[in-house]
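Input.
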Amino acid sequence: MSARCGFLTVAFCCVMASAAVAADPVADPCMVRAETILKALDAGEFEQARADFDATMLANLSAEQLGGVWASLPQQVGARVSVAAGRTQAAGGATVAIIPLQHAKAWLELQVSCNAEGKVGGLYVRPAAAPIAAAPTVEESALWSERELTVASAGLSLPATLTLPRDKVRAGVVLVHGSGAHDRDESIGPNRVFRDLAHGLAERGIAVLSYEKRSHAHPESFAGKAFTVKEEVIDDALAAVELLENQAELQQLPVFVLGHSLGALLAPRIASGQPTIAGVVMLAAPARTLTELMPKQAHYIANLDGEISAEERAGLKDMQKLVDRIEALGEADRNDITLLFGAPAAYWLDLKAYRPFLQAEALDKPILLLQGERDYQVTMAGDFLPWHQRMLDVKDFSDRSFAGLNHLFMPAGDPPGPADYEKPGHVDAQVIAAIGDWIVAQ
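Output.
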């Protein structure tokens, strides 16, 4: 889950390769287009913002959609405070103009991808880069080693890291990201959730495979397609499991799947697709649908200061309109590739048909559910307790909650909010110990 920008990463149409060499932003035509688009968005001239879109962008991102997402930003990260100097980067055959946007609760980046013909082929709003949390000390790194691997899935290559214990390997685990275009560390602000888990679990004798999510490594692979969570999450997770099982250090050893947020929601479904998976760990698993969670999260964030302004109410209303459109989707819409909150109809229909409780009950594999008690995104009352109550009589199911921890299993503020994710921290040691002890005990 993209914790800093609502349940889904705030995405319009992302047709962007990874950035490489920096270019001179002065008088760069792509930067000029990006500045023009930003000015139009701020003025509410959403049709004008589409003026330089290429055919794919025009077909997939309407003025109405653009307006709905833009209006939702203040609900998620507060009012705009400033706009910093932009920069450009080369990305394959395209140029990407990046404009940092400082909001009250977080930094964002408006990224505009321009093709060789000068048309806009991608528009993306994402959390801005932040200082990286402290690197491990020499003493810590002596407890584990790492090597680079590649997860091959659907003809794509996903860079991966295998973190190995220095001593005997007792089991393996594959880490599955939350929603959004995450890297292998599941970087959120200055925090690296999966890196913390990989290092901490390796110290306990567990080999950990983390990989770049397909939407991060190959966002262009989703353009113009009616994709679902199968393509976004499940296929790659299963390929990662197979890769880990085939490593020499893991021969004849159990391999588990650990999912965070959306990854936790889908973990039972992933495990049902591979009989050799030994069990699943679910961190902050939603019990509610994404379309129920998103408006509640937005409303919570808008009300953090004790009142909801007229602008915030308008943004919440626009968000609800998009949610209502998603709720109204039917089978006749399955091939519609119009993006709603960054995903086509097929994605939402797939999630609507998914029954995580039934999938977990039928799994016949051990399941561990963990929850931060101060998580405002996936909550104790709305998500953890329904899971707890539903799974009470299910064999090999166990759960535990942790006081004071947020969605990243790090200390929460008072009240919890998006600003928590801007504070450098680490996954709580109790959480890592609970996961490690449970895996070793299976």
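The two ends are 27 Å apart (CA to CA).
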